[in-house]
Amino acid sequence: MGSHFNLSAWALRNRTLVLYAMIVLAVVGVISYRQLGQSEDPPFTFKAMVVRTLWPGATAEEVSQQVTDRIEKTLMQTGAYERITSYSRPGESQVIFEAKDAMSSKDVPELFYQIRKKVGDMKNQLPEGVQGPFFNDEFGDTYGNIYALTGDGFDYATLKRYADRIELELQRVPDVGKIDLLGAQDEKIWIDLSNTKLASLGIPLQSVQQALDEQNAVSDAGFFETSSDRVRLRVSGSFDSVESIRNFPIHVGDRDFRIGDVAKVYRGFSDPSAPRMRFMGKDALGIEVAMKPGGDILKLGKNLEDTFARVQKELPVGMTLSKVSDQPAAVRASVSEFVDVLTAAVVIVLLVSFFSLGMRAGTVVALTIPLVLAMTFAAMNWFDIGLHKISLGALVLALGLLVDDAIIAVEMMAIKMEQGFDKLRAAAFAWDSTAFPMLTGTLVTAAGFLPIATAKSSTGEYTRSIFEVVTIALLLSWIAAVVFIPYLGSVLLQDLSKRKPGHAAVQRNTAHDPYNGRFYARFRALVAWCVRFRKTVIAITIATFVAALFLFQYVPQQFFPDSTRLELMVDIKLAEGASLKATTAQAGKLEAMLKGHPGIKNYVAYVGTGSPRFYLPLDQQLPATSFAQFVLLTDDIKSREAVRKWLIDTFATKFTDVQARVTRLENGPPVGYPIQFRVSGEHIDQVRKLALEVAAKVRQNPDVTNVNLDWHEPSKIVRLVVDQDRARALGVSSAQLAGFLRNALSGGHVSYYREDKELIEVLLRGPQDERERLSLLGSLSVPSSNGTNVPLSQIATLEYGFEEGIIWHRDRLPTVTVRADIYGAATPPSVTAKIEPTLDSIRAKLPAGYLLETGGTVEDSARGQDSVNAGIPLFIFVVTTLLMLQLRSFSRVALVWLTAPLGLIGVSLFLVVLRVPFGFVAMLGTIALFGMIMRNSVILVDQIEQDIGAGHEPWTAIIDATVRRFRPIVLTALAAVLAMIPLSRSVFFGPMAVAIMGGLVVGTALTLLFLPALYAAWFRVKAPRAA
User: Fold this and answer.
1) What is d(CA 783, CA 732) in angstroms, rounded to the nearest whole number?
2) What angle do CA 571, 457, 135 make, to 5 degrees?
3) What are residue 997's DSSP bridge partners?
4) Greatest mean pLDDT range, 284-298, 579-593, 882-896, 927-941
5) Are strands 851-855 and 255-258 parallel, antiparallel or unpaired?
6) Count of helix runs (H) and strand runs (E) in the chain
7) In Å, what is the CA distance from 475 to each residue of 310, 463, 653, 917?
């Protein structure tokens, strides 16, 4: 090999260049670190689009059959959907299209364009009177900074004017992307006018509406074209105040009167109100700020703080701007936590290096770590990988692995210099003997993370930066080991050869003399025993492996752990069809209880809708008048758990008439309820009946709580059965009757009142008494086409009844979802596994075409698991190819592969003993563990082959190679395991760290004891006769 190019020897011949490269890379790394974007979660694409259609007057069933089904059918023709869910409410259809999980993020915009086109093309197939469809695909916008503008004595109009000014200020702040106002109530001018009163005066309602509309219209009066100028004509009369509307004169027949004489004219807001935002029990206007893609959330947070501090001083007395959601603070805490973990891991690795390698060799490793980290930061900046919880955890994970190459290289160089090699020869020897096995081992370790890179799913996309960061760090660590370590070693290890000048003549065949100490003698005897009694060792190992697989069933299962953020989410759901007033009343009841409760910093309520996406994995809720959502910010984790327990107990005793749930924030892609079972089929009644049976079975499980159906209750209706003969004779059609009632109860458009930049709608409706007292409905005077008025009771009979308030579909089939929470320590997969067998009896009697499917955490976890499993064949192929290139023998490759799964012994043991759940992240760590174990195996097998190639007896070669590789194998494993200790405290990465620690401890022991025995058994190595 000596005639081949030797990179380590080249590095020593060109020291100045190497030193210059080290300085440049260190500087570039520091600059890159400062330029890395910081965020809470990795960039993540929500592959969902909502298609919303309105059909005023239609029932939920009519909307479902005539609108929703047709849109669903069109969307299915794309063939690129994971699922299509929809709901139909009276007058409204909402279809949620979710693209295939495996679809690449870059293909999603084109798919959404095709959807717009296809749905646009079928628009003429929808019934007459349909409004829309309208499209929304902006689900990924995260409003990390939300502020509440409140003010005692200030109405929504005043708050909005100041909010508009603040929005203008924010547009100038660097890194600000999107700004939206939340909870705004549109201003209206209401004219409350009783048609019954008008009828008694003989005044037609249409005449009033027409007069108001004509008076306020903007009409062109033309212009004079003179010889010198063009003079435009302007006609006065448009309304310039509410008073001018009130005093507007109307002449009908021989009567003259003012609007104010017969109607109440006043300025107000949407009624019923639009979804509201309330902060600390007060009506508020929300200002939500999203960051530009690739921005730095911490810099944005600082800029926003400065801006809002200035804005607060400009607000009038009594108006306050409060911080509701502060993602920069959460990111600051998260980054700070991981930097502390990284620092602790660096210190641990340095201590391992110093204690095991000595001060000088340890210093070489100590200088390499920050250099490799700096190079990693530069590469992350180049590949546009920001700092977030996934990449930061991956950095800590990589730290324990990237020192492996440095330890192996410096240990080999130090040993050779102790044996009398000069610096150049020692570096050259290290290159010749370990560089390529080390590279193979590095690539094998990196390949262990390959299934994460190839996972085509939302979960894979969320965790992909683990592969990216670890692979970058490992490859750079190998470069550092073969280029920078020789240089640093030549500077810091030069005294080692001077200690034992008598060793200058020592040749390569005595290279293992330093291993003749007492400890190595005992270890040599242990290895020799394992090789001699190979069958016993192999049998014990296999038995232990089988036992570990059996033990694995007692490991708790999970998908992603809950977030460590201090917020709690509280959902309140009333019966379908409940009014916004009823929902507001329940929200107010909870607000009164939250006020002054210990441990709560602030709370915000979203009434009639869910919270905006203030952090990326939020399970966002759709608007509904019967729904309210609270976000509570607590003081610390202890307070969060205490408040959560108090709320759960409170809801069980004081909110028995509503469906309520309390949840921590999620990690990973949003799931919603952890336990979900879906019943789908053609007939709603049958589906509902089956769903109630499933719910009864789910309730039998002691671990679940809050069992509910996503839709169940019908809504109240009053059906007006029109006597068509009499109505026609009196000149009233059903359409006219519906239009009159809609205008009388909700308000009919008359005109627009223009005020500066605002366009305020003027609406005419019945007085409050007629709108709120259902008993007066029959006495309403209905205008007819011939100008007379008819009491409603003369042409229609009122029937009180019920109808579907909402109809949910999944892939065009009516679907009812049985949902449940888990408030105890049990994990969703284990609870679902207990419930599943109890549903067999229901599954057995399902009619043809009906489905009972498992959803929730288990479904999402399985999808993520399947996407990772799809990458396993590539992982096997890549690793096998790398091993074949290095070992060039099917037998030896098989040997190395056989050691990989044995790490599961340690994984099972550590997870069971420490009661750590095995989740998606731990599963990724376990796959990666295979690569780490094989790395050591390939280096050991290669060393045995080198010794046999140098003329040693196979028996002696196995034992000597294992003894010589003991120190670097144990040191690298020790560095990796100890570096994981700080990471094991992390809620998100803890299970992965514990799995890797356990697997490496056992895997390393098996590499040193089981692998020599297996090698001897495989190749039938016999003991020398002298032995």
Assistant:
1) 8
2) 60
3) none
4) 579-593
5) unpaired
6) 38, 30
7) 48, 20, 59, 31
Written as six digits, the tokens of 922 are 């731990």
CA nearest neighbour of 448 among 96, 989, 807, 876: 876
Among 438, 516, 445, CA closest to 478:
438
Burial of 206 (0-12, 13-18, 19+ CB in 10 A): exposed
List the one residue out of 822, 608, 830 whose CA is nearest residue 703.
822
717 sits in which H/E element: strand 714-722
Q: What is the largest CA-CA distance in the chain?
A: 134
Angle formed by the axes of helices 920-949 and 389-418, nearest 10°: 20
Identify whether the C-beta of residue 329 lies closer than 8 Å to the C-beta of residue 301. yes
Q: What is the pLDDT of residues 741-776, one digit of tens each?
A: 888 888 888 888 887 777 888 888 888 888 888 887
For residues 514 and 799, give the distance between their C-alpha atoms in angstroms, rounded to a whole number. 100
Q: What six digits make up the tokens of 527?
A: 């290895």
CA–CA distance, 1015 with 1006 (Å, rounded to integer): 12
Spatial CB neighbours of 550, under 8 Å, sequence gap ≥ 6:
none
Whole-angstrom distance between the N-terminal and C-terminal Cα of the chain?
Answer: 34
818 pLDDT exceeds 50? yes
Question: CB 1026: neighbour CB atoms within 10 A?
Answer: 4
Reported as type and span, the H/E element at residue 943 is: helix 920-949
For 187, list phi and psi in degrees, rounded to 5.
-75, 145
pLDDT tens for each residue of 503-522: 444 444 444 456 677 888 88
The reported pTM is: 0.83
Task: Give the helix, strand, coil percentages of the chain, each rounded to 5.
Answer: 55, 20, 25
Q: Please count the residues of the chain.
A: 1027
Question: What are φ and ψ of residue 1002, in 5° steps?
Answer: -70, -40
Q: Is 321 helix (H, G, I), strand (E, B) or coil?
A: strand
pLDDT digits (tens, 9 = 90+) for 195-228: 777 777 777 777 787 778 777 777 777 878 888 8
Contact 288, 166 (CB under 8 A): no
**Could you give the residue ranges of the DSSP H alpha helices within 92-203?**
108-121, 156-170, 195-201
What single DSSP character describes residue 950? T
